[in-house]
Amino acid sequence: MASLHIDHLLGLQNVPKEDITLILDSTDTFLEILDRPIKKVPTLQGKTVVNLFFENSTRTRISFELAERRLSADVVNFAAGSSSVKKGETLLDTARNIEAMKVDIVVMRHSAAGAGHFLSKRCTSRFINAGDGAHEHPTQALLDMCTLRQKHGSLDGLNVCIIGDIAHSRVARSNIYGLLTMGADVAVCGPPSMMPYDLEKLGVRIFHDVDEALQFSDAVNVLRIQLERDAGADFPTLREYNQTFGITRDRLDRLGREVTVLHPGPINRGVEIESEVADGPYSVILPQVTNGVAIRMAVLYLIGTKAE
Ligand code: NCD
After folding, report:
1. Residue 78 C-alpha to ligand 1 middle, in angstroms?
2. What value does the mean pLDDT take over residues 283-301?
3. Which of the listed ranges 57-61, 80-84, 238-242, 250-254 does the model predict with the highest average pLDDT?
4. Would you state the pLDDT for residue 277?
5. CB contact burial 114-144 (16+ within 10 A = b; e otherwise)
6. Is the pLDDT assigned to residue 150 strictly greater than 90?
7. For residue 177, how many other CB atoms are within 10 A of its CB?
8. Nearest Cα residue to 187 out of 208, 171, 169
9. DSSP element (H, E) containing 104
10. What are the φ and ψ backbone dihedral angles of 220, each rounded to 5 degrees?
11. Is the CB of 171 within 6 Å of ligand 1?
């Protein structure tokens, strides 16, 4: 049986191609399970998973919990708002206490970049990063890659452009690392004020004109403006952003060919994407959500059953 090189899934930077391929290939088995009338297998029976969510989430938290329950794991949920974090406990103390309760896998979302790296070095549980600040969101990038593989067959040589608020986006960073490893041609597009400085060094193309970006692309991954991370200060108004960078039906019609449209959600309709595009024939936004559960089942299975 093939097994992962990594012990934790903290990000996709430096994760080898064989590991990404193994996760994507295993996902097909779990997608098949999700189509059965009884969507449950005993794979993680007897294992305990805690979902440590220090930051708000709907889709990702529910998706992880469904994946865990469908693998028959015992699941404990922790939301920072109702925990001792509010009483001044440190992140490390919270985690150590949880671990003293013999937890096997910790799924964590946190506003601080590197929170998972920090804890994985100090605790014995396996860690899965469900988003750390503006750093990485590896399971989102894996589900995006899974959806692209379904639609286009292979990621090798595929032209993918990530459009929007690149600087604040953990989704962008994980997608860039993962897609480059898998041999895709990766570009980004957005206002200069939303581009991180070191981007060209990673080997991605940069567009500032969205129509040029669309010409390059087989697929576009459209990002939300991260207003909660102060992104609103980087351009004059949401209306202007929509006119300059919004993915509209008009723009796609002018292109005159199909381009696959992904979005990690939550969508701001009428800002970065028009409703007609989000709900239109090229959109794979809902398949992404379905694939997300299967990807997380694959990651939990491969990380949770890997020998010490
Ligand atoms: C993303 C996130 O939280 O980083 N969403 C998600 O995981 N469903 C993207 C976003 O918030 O825009």
Report:
1. 19
2. 98
3. 250-254
4. 98
5. ebbbbbbeebebbbbbbbbbbbbbbbbbbbb
6. yes
7. 21
8. 208
9. none
10. -120, 140
11. yes
Whether residue 140 has its Cβ less than 6 Å from ligand 1:
yes
Residues 6+ apart with CB under 8 A from 267: 224, 273, 278, 285
**Ligand 1 touching residue 60 (CB < 6 A):** yes
The distance in angstroms from the start CA to the end CA of the chain is 15
User: What is the separation of C-alpha 186 from the centre of its chain, rounded to a whole number of angstroms?
Assistant: 16
- Which tens digit of pLDDT belongs to each residue from 206-230? 999 999 999 999 999 999 987 776 6
CB 139 within 8 A of CB 9: yes
Element (H or E) spanning 152, and its range? helix 138-152
Atom index in ligand 1 nearest the CA of residue 224 equals: 12
The residue with tokens 């979902």 is 51
Instruction: Give the pLDDT confidence of 175-192 residue by residue, as tens digits.
Output: 999 999 999 999 999 999
Q: Which atom of ligand 1 is nearest to the CA of 57?
A: 3
Domains of the chain: 17-136+289-306 (3.40.50.1370), 138-288 (3.40.50.1370)
Distance 41 CA to ligand 1 centre (A): 28
Report whether residue 149 contacts ligand 1, using a CB cutoff of 6 Å.
no
What is the DSSP secondary structure assignment for residue 55, as one 8-state letter?
Answer: S
Atom nearest to 130 CA in ligand 1:
7
- Pocket residue to mutate for ligand 1, from 55, 58, 140, most atoms within 8 A of Cβ: 140
The yes-or-no verdict on residue 253 having pLDDT over 90 is: yes
Least confident of 38-47, 224-233, 268-277: 224-233
- For ligand 1, what atom is nearest to the CA of residue 131? 4
